Amino acid sequence: MAAHRLGSWFGSRRPAAAVPGPVADGDRPHREAAIYTRDQESGDHLAQVLSERGYACSLQLNAWAARYAARRGTPDLAVIDWRLGERAAGRLVKAITQATGNGACALLALVPGERPDLLLTVLELGVSDFLILPFERAQLSARLSLIESRLRELDQLKALQENLAKEYDRFLIATGGRNDGIWDLDLATESVHYSDRWKAMLGFAPDEIRDELEEWLSRVHPEDLTRLRAVIDASIAGELSAVEQRYRLRLKSGEYRWMLTQGEVVAGPDGKPSRIVGRQTDVDSEEATREAVRASGLQDPLTRLPNRAVLMDRLRHAFARAKRDPEQGFAVLFFDLDRFKNINDGLGHLTGDQLLRAIAQRVERACRPGDTVARFGGDEFVVLVEDIKDVRGATVAAERIQNEFRVPFDLDGNEVFTTISIGIALWNPEYQRPEDLLRDSDTAMYRAKAMGRNSFAVFDDAMHRKVVATLRLENDLRRALARNEFRVFYQPIVAIDDGRIAGFEALVRWQHPERGLLMPGEFIRVAEEMGAIIQLDRWVAEEACKQLRVWHQKYRAHSRTTMSVNLSTTQIMRPDVVAGIDLILRNSGLYGQSLKLEVTESVLVENAQYAKAVLEQLKALKITISIDDFGTGYSSLSYLRRFPIDTLKIDYSFVSRMLEDQESAEIVRTIITMAKNLSKDTVAEGVQTRSQFEALVGLEVSMVQGYFIAPPLPKEVAESLLERTAGHPNHLAKILADRMQGSSPRAANTRAVG
Ligand code: C2E
Ligand code: MG
Ligand code: MG
Question: Who surrounds ion ligand 2 at CB < 5 A?
Answer without folding.
Answer: 566, 598, 628
